[in-house]
Write a structure and sequence with these properties.
Number of strands of chain A: 21
Structural class of chain A: alpha+beta
Structural class of chain B: alpha/beta
Distance between the termini of chain A: 28 Å
Number of helices of chain A: 21
Oligomer: heterodimer
Mean pLDDT of chain B: 86
Low-confidence stretches of chain B: 1-15
Largest sheet of chain B: 6 strands, mixed
Largest sheet of chain A: 6 strands, mixed, barrel
Radius of gyration of chain B: 19 Å
Shape of chain A: flat
Helix content of chain A: 40-55%
Order of helices and strands of chain B: EEEHEEHEHHHEHEHEE
Number of helices of chain B: 7
Strand content of chain B: 25-35%
Strand content of chain A: 15-25%
Distance between the termini of chain B: 24 Å
């Protein structure tokens, strides 16, 4: 009993032990933060990769793409494991905003929007689609403009809520207004984006707020669509809006929903060279955020069939160069097929690796399928097609991060040995200070092993208190890591996490229970280890010599 | 006489069966650099139960060393100490003069630890109280030693009652929560006596208990020791003060490393 009693008493009364506790706490917190940030980075990488790609990706890693995608999709759609498959087309282009003449190179992605909504998590990252459900479309469309409903008069209040007058209610074209009211009724609110004058007026009147940026009609008339019908384009959010330190995005009046942007593309000829650029105007219909900066700052999304046509990758007639007669069809091509699997079939879980293998084999079999009259080049493109699970397709990114996480954890663990040395020094010092006490304890019957146990328990207690407080500190720090970074950026202009470098626009962090437990256990063991030398010395003290200690 | 030229003291039975504590031919030397300082040259002592024995001697004569050996705190190079007829130390040939943190593995050390826990109570000249603990905790500590954590809740009430009773006896019932730094020298020594007695030892070993006290406190302490003796407590006291020694039943003088009756 005396061991536990004296350990607890020394822990409370010997203030020098607080330094050891602080060292253990800081080291535990440091290792936990590193593990959490690296683990969070890894988790986010996996989540985003899966969210963006679907369960299986079929690709041939060629800018020229591969044919028979629709035939393949039609075949596999009958498979019980397949929930949905959709083709995707990738290209590069030059994006120009008509109003500002701002240009930038972008990666153009051709998608079938309705299919992509099913296959991956693209829909959840769309801004306007969230607050105006059903209004985002890649089909040709005019620009929606906010107008006024003269039948409804609303009170207009300033920022402080003081009534400044009345006026007609601002409204969107009926289908947009109806969508807004649906989402409003469902409780959806954009609480992050700073309010505009328009949202402030509607908020003051207690009406659904028109979020985002819309052009106003020029004549104070009713809402309407104006301008030519142009195909829709979804733009990466970091291209069109500015991220604020609060993690909200600020949209600009220069880029209202439906404004015209132009894409210049370079289609590849049959010989694989880019000869004549093509230009296509679009309307900006929505912006997308995946959370991966590299994608959100570079990707734009348009209709698959339109992009295919612009890149001259659509199906065309095959003409005999000698006779000039049509002798068949050159199939259209896609760059990728994304597949979403059902989680289980007939009560058994679906194994993505096995399905990917079957999909590869099926695609290769298409090259020899007598139904299709393929040219030599098309067969070559099909031969290179490979079906990979999302994990395999991203292995080149995920594996190094996994290794890095392991390595950094080991390195920080080694650095944390400083805490062990500190515990050793402080406990050794306490043993020297308490030499006479050790003699007293031995004189009343304390054994050498018992006295040693006091200091081993003391070390473990220092480890326990330090590890628990370190874990708490680490968890709180990780929980507020982005706010801390935003503060540092605001106060000192010092941004630790560069989204340009690390892809994600916020510091990812996941505090795992198993990591926390491992850190706590390791810290207790390390502190106990640090106490062994001091404990040995305390135990080996001769009681008479200890009592005579000055 | 060295152990090589005569039979080992530990090998022989205790000379007197009615003696509670017997020391036979106890030798203790200290290595001082290249020279060896012989402190005890073969001390013989017999203490009967209920006896009050005082050992006198000049400073540096080895009184405290002898007391530490009698109380199993120190190990003699030769000779043996018997408590209740059983040898306290291993035979000289198998005797380890220094302990380690793993000394609990040695049967002889385990026996000495058990004696210190149950049979002996020490009072030191400089009190030797733990400064972090208050009066009651200092006294209770002697009861905690030897009680397992899980057994303590059951034993605590009895231990506390004993501690309060003994503190009442030494006149410190009203100073339970005071720390040693808040007590006078005499009070500290009384706490030390309470700690030494709380486990009801068979022998109280006191090393210059009045050496650090003024005359008044010294006299009070002696009165306390005499009272304890009157109640049957066996006491072995070491002092250089003839006035203190005069309170004992028997006075021995340690001179030249040997004990003789005064």
């Amino acid at each position: 009993m005396y061991k536990l009693f004296l350990t607890l008493r020394y822990l409370r009364k010997r203030r020098i032990a607080y330094f050891a506790i602080a060292a253990v706490m800081l080291c535990s917190a440091m290792v936990l933060i590193v593990m959490s940030v690296m683990g969070g980075f890894l988790d986010l990488l996996k989540t985003k990769a899966r969210g963006l790609l679907g369960d299986i990706i079929i690709d041939n890693r060629s800018y020229s793409g591969f044919p028979l995608y629709d035939e393949f999709i039609a075949d596999i759609s009958a498979w019980p494991e397949i929930e949905k498959a959709t083709p995707v087309l990738y290209s590069y282009g030059l994006l120009r905003f008509s109003e500002t003449t701002q240009t930038q190179t972008v990666r153009v992605v051709g998608i079938r929007l309705a299919d992509v909504y099913v296959v991956n998590a693209f829909k959840s990252g769309l801004y306007y689609e969230t607050y105006y459900p059903g209004t985002t479309s890649l089909a040709p469309q005019a620009q929606p403009r906010v107008g006024f409903d003269v039948q409804q008069t609303i009170e207009i209040r300033d920022e402080r809520g003081t009534r400044v007058g009345t006026g007609p209610r601002p409204v969107l074209p009926p289908e947009y207004q109806a969508a807004l009211e649906r989402s409003w009724a469902a409780g959806l609110r954009d609480t992050l984006t700073p309010p505009t004058e328009l949202t402030a007026i509607l908020r003051g009147a207690g009406l659904p707020e028109i979020v985002g940026v819309y052009d106003l009609v020029d004549d104070h008339g009713p809402p309407r669509f104006t301008g030519n019908e142009l195909p829709g384009l979804i733009i990466g959010r970091d291209i069109i809006a500015e991220r604020l330190p609060t993690a909200a995005y600020k949209r600009f009046w220069a880029y209202p929903r439906g404004c015209v942007v132009a894409l210049t593309l370079l289609p590849l000829s049959a010989t694989g060279t880019a000869d004549i650029p093509v230009k296509q105007p679009f309307r900006y219909v929505d912006d997308s955020r995946t959370g991966i900066y590299e994608i959100d700052s570079q990707h734009v999304y348009c209709d698959f069939e339109l992009l295919q046509k612009l890149l001259q990758m659509h199906a065309t007639e095959r003409v005999d160069p000698e006779t000039g007669r049509t002798i068949g069809t050159v199939p259209g091509r896609a760059s990728q097929i994304q597949v979403k699997l059902r989680p289980q079939v007939a009560g058994r879980p679906v194994r993505p690796e096995a399905v990917a293998q079957r999909l590869s084999e099926h695609y290769h079999a298409l090259a020899a399928d007598p139904r299709f009259d393929l040219g030599f080049d098309d067969r070559l493109l099909i031969d290179r097609v490979e079906a990979l699970t999302w994990e395999e397709s991203q292995r080149h990114i995920i594996a190094p991060v996994e290794n890095e996480r392991r390595l950094v954890t080991i390195l920080f663990g080694i650095i944390s040995l400083v805490a062990v040395v500190l515990v050793l020094c402080i406990l050794y010092m306490i043993v020297l200070q308490k030499t006479r006490d050790i003699g007293i304890v031995k004189s009343i019957g304390g054994s050498s092993t018992g006295v040693a146990a006091i200091f081993v328990t003391y070390g473990a207690a220092v480890g326990l208190v330090g590890a628990l407080s370190g874990a708490a500190l680490g968890i709180v720090f990780v929980h507020h890591i982005n706010e801390i970074q935003d503060f540092l950026t605001w106060a000192f202009g010092w941004r630790v996490w560069s989204r340009e470098v690390y892809s994600f626009d916020a510091i990812p962090s996941t505090v795992r229970v198993e990591d926390t437990v491992a850190v706590i256990v390791a810290a207790i063991l390390a502190a106990t280890l640090g106490s062994l030398l001091a404990a040995w010395r305390a135990g080996a003290m001769q009681p008479v010599e200890a009592l005579r200690h000055e | 006489m060295s152990s090589a030229t005569r039979p080992s003291a530990a090998a022989r039975p205790p000379a007197s069966a009615d003696a509670l504590l017997v020391a036979e031919a106890v030798q203790k030397t200290y290595a001082m650099g290249r020279t060896t300082l012989v402190v005890l040259r073969g001390c013989d002592l017999r203490v009967r139960a209920g006896e009050f024995v005082a050992i006198m001697g000049k400073s540096g004569s080895g009184k405290s060393t002898l007391l530490h050996i009698l109380g199993a705190l120190d190990v003699p190079q030769d000779g043996q100490v018997y408590f209740g007829g059983a040898p306290v130390f291993a035979p000289p040939g198998r005797r380890r003069l220094r302990t380690t943190a793993l000394d609990v593995l040695s049967a002889a050390e385990r026996r000495r630890i058990a004696l210190r826990r149950r049979a002996f109570g020490f009072v030191f000249q400089f009190y030797h109280l733990l400064p972090e603990l208050n009066v009651l905790e200092n006294v209770l500590l002697a009861r905690m030693v030897g009680t397992r954590v899980l057994a303590w809740p059951a034993a605590r009430a009895a231990a506390r009652a004993d501690a309060l009773a003994i503190l009442e006896r030494v006149g410190l019932r009203d100073r339970l929560r005071h720390r040693p730094s808040e007590l006078s020298g005499g009070e500290r020594q009384r706490v030390a006596i309470a700690r030494a007695l709380v486990h009801r030892p068979q022998i109280l070993l006191a090393d210059e208990p009045t050496g650090n006290l003024d005359a008044e406190n010294g006299a009070a302490l002696l009165a306390l020791l005499k009272g304890l003796h009157a109640d049957g407590q066996t006491i072995v006291l070491v002092t250089h003060d003839p006035g203190v020694a005069a309170q004992a039943d028997r006075v021995l003088l340690l001179e030249g490393g040997r004990l003789r009756t005064v």
